[in-house]
Amino acid sequence: MKKVLSKDFWVDQDIEQLIGELLRYGVITASIVVFFGGAFYLYQHGGTGVPAYRVFVGEGASYTTFKGIINGAMGLNAKDVIQLGVLVLIATPIMRIAFSLVAFIMERDKLYVFITLIVLCVMLFSIFGGLKV
Amino acid sequence: MTTLTFCLILLAGAYLAGLVGSLTGLGGGVVVIPLLTLVFHVDIRYAIGAALLASIATSSGAASAYVKEGITNIRLGMFLEIATTIGAVLGALIAVYTPTNTIAMLFGGILIFSAAMTLRKKNQEALTEGSKLSYLLKLNSSYPTKNGEVAYKLKNVGAGFSMMTIAGIVSGLLGIGSGALKVLAMDTAMHIPFKVSTTTSNFMIGVTAAASAVVYLQRGYMDPGIAFPVILGVLGGAFTGSKLLIRMDPKVLRIIFCLAITFVAVEMMYNGYNHKF
Question: How many domains does chain B contain in total?
Answer without folding.
Answer: 1
